[in-house]
Specification:
The chain contains 1 helix and 11 strands; from the N terminus they run βββαββββββββ. By secondary structure, the chain is mainly beta. The strands form 2 sheets. Strands 2, 4, 5, 6, 9, 10 and 11 form a 7-stranded mixed beta sheet that branches. A 4-stranded antiparallel beta sheet has the order 1-3-8-7. A hairpin with a 6-residue loop joins strand 4 and strand 5. It is globular.
Length: 134
């Protein structure tokens, strides 16, 4: 079993920046994290959960939703079992609960980034609120 916990949410003005962190832990601590691809999703009130971005096991491969591409950056540090989401140029429409997710469906490929579907991810955090004021 793997647990993921988000932190770093808060209130920020439009145009500002925020950094979210995700810490992973589990029965086989670092090795479990090391074979997982990771991702971020978000869910605004009244809307479905949507993909924000994903990162491969190696950390060298990422993909992003069009709505955040160029503004958000995902990185990970396997030695510390952490992943971050750096959000710049925030807009009011970025307001949502942000979720960290982990995927074991890497097929042994260290460069594999999961498809942007919730079904691709096995483990989920509880979410952290991000609010962007206009």
């Amino acid at each position: 079993q793997v647990q993921v916990v988000e932190s770093g949410g808060g209130l920020v003005q439009a145009g500002g920046s925020l950094r979210l962190s995700c810490a992973a832990s589990g029965r086989t601590f670092s090795s479990t994290f090391s074979i997982l691809a990771m991702g971020w999703f978000r869910q605004a009130p009244g809307k479905e959960r949507e993909f924000v971005g994903g990162v491969s096991w190696s950390g060298a491969d990422t993909n992003y939703a069009d709505s955040v591409n160029g503004r958000f950056t995902i990185s990970r540090e396997n030695a510390k079992n952490t992943m971050t989401l750096q959000m710049n140029g925030l807009k009011p429409e970025d307001t949502a609960v942000y979720y960290c997710a982990a995927s074991s469906k890497t097929y042994g490929n260290i460069h594999y980034v999961p498809s942007p579907r919730t079904s691709e991810f096995d483990y989920w955090g509880q979410g952290t609120q991000v609010t962007v004021s206009s």
